[in-house]
Amino acid sequence: MVASDGFAEFLREQLAPLGRLTMRRMFGKTGVFCQGLMLGMVTDDTLYFRVDDDNRAVFREAGSAPPLNYAKRGRTIDLSFWRVPERLLDEPDELLIWARAALAAARRVAADRSRAAPKRRSNYPR
Questions:
Q1: Which of 45, 43, 93 shows the shortest CA–CA distance to 68?
Q2: FRET label pair with 38: which of 26, 32, 54, 76, CA 20 to 30 Å apart?
């Protein structure tokens, strides 16, 4: 389920210090974007932040497992988005710290993808 209008507005207010926040419905969920990078996802008004090797341990220690996942061909596929501890929704300053870490993870993921993307060759002769 996508984010309710009320929850989406709450997130926009809480995460405003990060910069322009946008949300887009995708895959039956809501993607949370800042500066063109997807730092989070919302499903059933539950917020998940982007994780990578640099911040995964913090999420694990906070007991925010399991990560957001879906079933495909009888297997569970874990996504790189982990549930934000519920207490953070009542602690705006700490929520921003976690959001900044998620945004940094989103930047690293984007950088890794751009390095791994094959260079396009022009079809025009030189």
A1: 43
A2: 76
CA quadruple 52, 56, 59, 63: dihedral sign: positive
Residuewise pLDDT in 10s, the chain (126 residues):
788 999 999 999 999 999 999 999 988 899 999 989 999 999 999 999 999 999 999 988 988 767 888 888 999 888 899 999 999 999 999 999 999 999 999 999 888 777 765 656 555 555
Q: What does the alpha-carbon distance between residue 40 and residue 33 come to, in Å, rounded to a whole number?
A: 7
Element (H, E) at 67: strand 67-72
- Count of C-beta atoms within a 10 Å radius of residue 82: 24
- Contact between 42 and 123 under an 8 Å Cβ cutoff? The reply is no
